[in-house]
Design brief:
- With 209 residues, this protein is of the alpha+beta class.
- It folds into two domains: 75 residues, Glutaredoxin (3-Layer(aba) Sandwich), CATH 3.40.30.10; 122 residues, Glutathione S-transferase Yfyf (Class Pi), Chain A, domain 2, CATH 1.20.1050.10.
- Helices cover 49% and strands 6% of the residues.
- Strands 2-1-3-4 form a four-stranded mixed sheet, with helices on one face.
- β3 and β4 form a beta hairpin.
- The radius of gyration is 17 Å and the shape is globular.
- The protein binds glutathione.
- The site of glutathione (GSH) has 15 residues, from α1.
- The site of glutathione has 15 residues, from α1.
């Protein structure tokens, strides 16, 4: 088994933190996204979508999508559960993950991909020749701000993103918030509940993964 990884990529970081929390160590192969290594035939043969992370199983199966890769390890290493323990907690965590992916990761990707000159012809991850659209920057920032407003209210009521336990939802939100810093979008001062939570989560050893 091996994990195709990119140290700069927030979705790849989600998987690394998840593995660190579970104490799982597997071989990794670094792919240089900025240099376009993910767009070369050698990688596209493995993942035609051209994105990372990508897990290669021993039987040659490839798993893409960071949440699906985490699901694989949740099932195969069930101690230290990070994706819920019963129907309600599993569904709540799944719902939080989709909120973070659609309301934070996608808008942030729009902000980054449409503003960084290096990606001006790679505005969609994993794809060459898609031109940046300036209007998506402002829209992305506003969507991300709405996400932060909701997250702050949630963390006022709960210790962690999906409730009272640390889960993959915390890992994913941490990666989104650190990703936003690349676009100089910091946690707004008035979001004190996010800041309290962020300080705690980013102090965990796994956050260094
Ligand atoms: N929903 C996918 C997103 C994968 C994705 O967009 N990965 C980015 C890095 S975080 C990527 O591979 N980008 C390739 C590129 O920019 O060309 C997941 O969670 O795995």
């Amino acid at each position: 088994m091996k994990l195709y990884d990119c140290t700069q990529a927030p979705n790849a970081r989600r998987v690394r933190i998840f593995l660190a929390e579970k104490g799982i160590d597997i071989p990794t192969i670094e792919i240089d996204i900025a240099g376009g290594e993910n767009l070369l035939p050698a990688f596209l043969e493995k993942n035609p979508r051209g994105v990372l992370p990508l897990l290669e199983l021993d039987d040659g199966t490839y798993l893409d999508e960071s949440s699906a890769i985490c699901r694989y390890f949740e099932e195969t290493y069930p101690t230290v559960p990070l994706m819920g323990t019963d129907a309600k907690s599993k569904a709540l965590i799944e719902s939080c993950l989709r909120h973070i992916e659609f309301d934070a990761f996608l808008p942030l990707a729009d902000v980054l991909r449409n503003s960084v000159p290096h990606f001006k012809e790679r505005a969609i991850p994993g794809t060459q020749g898609v031109l940046a659209i300036e209007g998506l920057i402002e829209r992305g920032i506003k969507s991300y701000q709405r996400f932060l407003d909701r997250l702050n209210s949630r963390l006022e009521a709960h210790c962690y993103v999906a409730g009272d336990e640390f889960t993959i939802a915390d890992i994913t939100a941490l990666c989104a918030i650190d990703f936003a810093k690349w676009a100089r979008l910091e946690i707004p001062e008035q979001h004190e509940h996010i800041q309290r939570w962020y300080d705690e989560i980013s102090a965990r050893a796994s956050a260094q993964a």
